Structure formats: structure tokens, C-alpha cells
């Protein structure tokens, strides 16, 4: 094949045209789809703009995932009849959210220098921002203590590991009284299997607080194993309690944790369990599907958690409930909604 | 024997000389290969930049535990590089093997569009394989297209263009996500198109470097000159490893391995930087940008300097720069400029070594084994760096970050001293 310089340029120009066309088409169709996400769908929930109050005990507050202008906004519905209710929408958007006793933590995405950046906002009961903290990566978990005094969040940090593995986590805890931030739980002293433990590969995620505003439970991961740990903020220490426990969530009465247990080697398959903290005995729940979420307790007998929506867009979740004692069957609580917190006064 | 510029007739080169004034002749082959690398890196980095977001936001994964593959892949990639270099010499067609490598990386891009973790893993592994295959033949093509006294500059230009692509990739990706929120499939599709464009540029504008006794297939490729390359002597594995019997390549190989064993991986360096200088967390993702920017600015000047004052000097100065960076991190004075200084030194280290090493290797390896020689040193270096990562991780876990860094710095100082002696000039051309 002999090509003169001119012919080479012609072939190149043709190639550039063709490839630009394909690229432009894919970007435009993705932009169309993105616009569609901002258009309400037939059969979706109804919305009313309004005030969302974190201290209203009669309402559930959660991240709305239904298509439309209210996508990703915090919305509230009556706790008694959540399904099909008109959703009262605020103007605050979050990727992860949790609230208790009138304090909310909202993890958000923005951009800096054309790259994504993330922050944590602490909200008061009227969703006004009290403080903002930059965070190092993609939001994963958020929790507020029952009293509303402490907040914790976990983000995925890219490229912070051996052999340039994709991710590690960073978990921070904030005391809103005095605004004291513990930026990285990895600095806490660790006791594992009865002995002091140190390893650079330690990761924490999924904090859940007790009522004393000092003790917390969390997941610790090291050497490809995960542990349930109990920690003390004042003591800056954590102690391992049990193996293969992720994303614990403490019951309102403080006696049990719900958690996800890996059930098939290292595959991304989890079953939701509840462990009695006195006996360390676990009960599998009636939910047979893989739950990858930090569940929330609606009351001492009922758990709520998010599952990928069975129909519709990827990245959209429905919220389900199941009895905490292993009986019963899962029920759909809210469609296109990321697991809400307990309605608290 | 030195082979004159393969793709441009003598007259054209001197005309370009005059046109470009001080820049003088830049081999069109190097420019074409630089363009291919630039375009391909845009494509690769687009994917790399959005992958974490895609996994978490798009696929709804909690990605811990998925990253384990990465370290293993680095080892595999090094071995693939050796294969690529050897194959290129064996079939006597560097462009063919490089093209297969670039083509493989372009072809697997559509696999990313499938919403499936397995497909994603396969696509990433094949992409790495493509990268491993193409590296050595591409560097061999660069070295074969310019005279020995301009090797440093050619590699410097190539690395600068390559890094430009790496910097542009994420910007392109986030522009697309800005237009189409959640449009990861569009990012992957555009990445595929860009990769295909890279292959097209390679096919159209890079001469093959083919060494066959048959007449040159293209008017521009002066393959006849290389036909003088001893027939009968085959570029087999024994010959490739036989290269290590040569004193000068053995010295280069040994130094690359020794220095690789004490070169802390980028991920660790940024982590150290953040911990020891208190860079705010939200700036962590921006740290690699600093290194890349300095690498981009200094790659060409460092290459030219290497041609003028000697590759050994520049190569060692690069490692001195890295050592200085380690020293600053260990000392950790309370200077606001400290993170910038360390990143600048890290970028300077890459500029002074990344292209200079293959240039040095090219000078001591015969043409028929050029890709094998480059691959051999590259593989040795990559495996050594991988071992360093494992050892450094263990040392960090056992002793903490300060002592681990001190150990790496001490090791680097010793290895650099050994390299200074092993690479001392022996009256040969630089």
C-alpha cells in the first residue's frame, strides 16, 4: 500500500470525522438521557416544594432518587403512610445523608479545577448549613449519634494503598460541641485479638454511635479481613469484637447491631444479620438478597436498608424493611429512595 | 552502525533544520509516535479518572476488595513488556507489535460499556497487556529514528507529549460528565474513539522499522539500510538474554534494578507527602498533577541536556533530585512551599530518568535486538519497583512512615553511589 502524504492526510481526516461523529453521538445521547433524569416520570411520586424539618417525629427524611427536578434532594413523607405520599422537597441535595435529634450530615459533590471534589455539611433541623468540611474522596457512609451531638462520615480515597490498589477509606468523626474533628480514625490505638495491633493497611468505615456520645461501633479492615470494633472517642482507641462484620448499625435500645456479613469468599455478596452484643450470637434476617448498605433501625424491631431498584435506572435504590429477629418477609417501604433515618424527635 | 533518519530524506531534514532554527530537526517518526502516545494517554486517563466514580456512583459498588488485582497486574505487565520487545525483534517489525498493543487497548474499550464487573476487569487487564506489548517496540522505534547524539532529546519530546495526554485525559472526561451528568458510557465511548484515532495515526504516520531483505514497502522507509543487519543472526531469546553478557548493558540493567528497588512508588510518595507536610485532604487527588506538570516541562530540556553533557550525569542528577525530595520529606521543615518543592523534585526525577534510561540503553544495544534490550531493562526496573512497593509497605507497617522513608533514602543513596561507579564513562560515546 503506497500512500502519498496527501492521501495519508485525507485518510486521517476521514477517520477523525468518523470518530468525532461517533464520539459526539454518544455524548449527545448521554446528555439527552441526563436531561430525562430531570423530567418526572409517569407513575413516579408527586412532589411539593416546602420545608423539611429534621425534628418532626411524624415524618421520614431521605434522599429522593426519583427522576425529576427533585432528584437527589432531601425530601420528607409521613412516617405512617410513606408509600405513594406526596414528597415534600427541600432545596438541599446529598449523595449520602443521615440525621438524628435535629442534626443532619449531608455528603455532597462539587467540582474543583474541573475535577470532582466532595464535602460534608452539618445541617440544623431546618436544613441550614452550620459547618462545611472538605472530604478526600467519594462519599460512602454518614451517621449522626442519637443525641445529635456527634457526626461521622466515611469516604473512598483513591490511590492510597499498596501496589496502587484502587481504594482505601477515610473515616472522620466530628463533635459538634466545640466542633472538634478527628479527621482519621486510623490514628486511634487498635486492640485486635487481645493484643495491640498496628498495620498501614488498616481501614475503618461505617461508624454507629451509642447514646453516651463517646462509645461507637465500626468496621475495621486489615489483611483482607473485616472486624466489628467498639471504640471510645475520648480514649482514642478501638477494640476488636468479632470477625466478618461490616457496616454495623446499633439498635435504639443499644443491645444489638445489624450488619452485613460477607457470605461467599471475597465476592461482593452480603447477607444482613443482627448480632446480640452480649452473646455475640448472630441471626440471619429474612432478606435473601445481597444488602450492601449500612441499615437503619426504624424502631427496636424493624430495619430499613437500600437495595438497587429492580427496574429503571442504574444507581437508583429502593428502601426496604425487614423484621430484626429473622422472621417475616422483606417489604418495600419507599421506591426510588435511599434508606432514611429513623424518625426522631 | 548508525542508521540515518528513517522516514525523512536527508534534504528534508536539513530544510526543517533551517526552519526550526534552534529546535533543529525533530524526527517526524518521533513526532508521530509522540502524537500516538499523547492521544492514547488521553484515552487511557479519561477512563482512569472516572473509574472510581463509575464503580461507586454508576455501579453502586463498594469497591474495597476489588483493587487487589492491581498489584498483580503490574507484575504481569512487566512480563508482557519483555514479550513485546522480544516479538518485535523476532518478527523484525516494531510497528506491527506496537500497533497490536495500541490496537488491543482500543478494542477493549467497548467492554467498559457493559455494566458488569467481570467485563470491566477483563477490559482493564487487556488494556494493561496492550500497554505492556507496545512499550518496548515503541521506544525502539524512537531510538531507531534519530542519530545517537539526539536520543535524549527524542525521548524527552516523546515523554513530554505522552504526559500532556495524561494531563488532558481527566479534563476531557469531566467536560463530558459536565455536559451529560452520569454519562460514564459516553466517557468510555469517546475514550474508545480517541484510542482508535491513536491507532490510525500510528498506521498512517509511523514507518514500520521493518527489517526485511525485501525492497522497502514504502517510499519513505529506508529499510534497505537496515538489511545490512547481519542475516542469519536471529533475534531469539538466547540472543536477547545474551545481551546481558555485554558489560555496558549489564551495568545499565543492574543500575536500573538497584535504583528501582529504592524508588518508592508514586502512591506511597503522595501519601507520605500528605502525612508529613499536612497537605489538606481535599488536595490529595491533585498531587499527581504537580509531578506531571514538572515532568512535562522538564522532559525535553532534560533530554537535550543529556545529549550535551552525558546521559549518566543527567540520570544520576535525576536520582539525586529524588533523594533530595526524600530528604525534605524526612526533615519536614514547616515551610508552606514544601509540598511544591517535593513535587517539583519528583517531577524532575521523572524528567531526568524516564526517557534518559531507554536512550542510554539504545546506545549500547545493536539494532536487531533494540526492542529486546529496552524491554529487558524496563522489565527489570518495573519488577524492582514492584518489589520496592511490597517492601516499603511492610516497612511502613512495621516501623512507621518516617523510618521506612529513611531506609529508602539510605538505600537510594547507596544504590546511586554504586550506579555512579558502574556507569562511569569508559571512553565510549555517551
From TrEMBL, chain A:
InterPro entries (UniProt xref): 6-blade_b-propeller_TolB-like (IPR011042)
Q: Where is this region: Disordered?
A: 316-345
What name is this protein filed under? TolB-like translocation protein
Starting at the broadest rank, the lineage of the source organism is:
Bacteria, Bacillati, Actinomycetota, Actinomycetes, Kitasatosporales
